[in-house]
Design a protein that fits this description.
Layout lengths: L26 E4 L5 E4 L10 E2 L6 E3 L17 E3 L7 E9 L2 E5 L5 E15 L4 E4 L4 E4 L5 E17 L1
Antiparallel strand pairs: 1-2, 3-10, 4-5, 6-11, 7-11, 8-9, 8-10, 8-11
Length: about 160
């Protein structure tokens, strides 16, 4: 006997004790280096979910005058992926089992670093990005779509509300 396909059930909405701020038009912020970092609260698709890498960030080199140099050969560069004012933040360790939740509007900017397992983020049009161990990514506040835990997973996260 061939098993029958189960009808697709709508995903349950995630419960959030604190509701996000109302949506407002997107605006841009200037970084100290003069570049632009988006501050989005409008619903966003999968293109707004970005891996945190040097290639996806805006390069910024803090002035050496901000430091007390301990070694003459010191050099550094930051690669900023998002930024802006914050009203609240939280962070920690997360563990999840396979399953999915849907968000009409992601409640905060979230930075995720996957320690174990595999997760996916899929927008309302079905476009998807997957992430695994050692990968980090940013989900913007206002993202509209699904969080899918593909296999038992663990992550470290920072969530910033605007």
């Amino acid at each position: 006997m061939v098993p029958r396909a189960q009808p697709r059930r709508p995903l349950r909405r995630a419960h959030h004790p604190q509701r996000p701020a109302p949506l407002r038009p997107a605006r841009s912020l200037r970084t100290p280096g003069g570049g632009v970092v988006n501050d989005r609260r409008t619903p966003a698709g999968i293109d707004a979910v970005r891996a945190i890498t040097a290639e996806n960030g805006e390069r910024f080199v803090p002035p050496l005058s901000d430091y007390h140099l301990l070694s003459a050969e010191w050099t550094e560069a930051e690669f900023r992926v998002f930024g802006g004012g914050a009203s609240a933040f939280t962070g920690g360790f997360w563990r999840g089992e396979p399953g999915a939740v849907r968000f009409d509007s992601w409640p905060y900017d979230e930075i995720c670093f996957v320690l174990k397992g595999r997760v996916a983020v899929e927008d309302e049009s079905g476009r998807r990005k997957e992430f695994g161990p050692g990968e980090s990514f940013h989900i913007p506040q206002g993202f509209r779509g699904d969080w899918i835990t593909l296999e038992p997973s663990e992550k470290v996260f920072v969530a910033v509300s605007r």
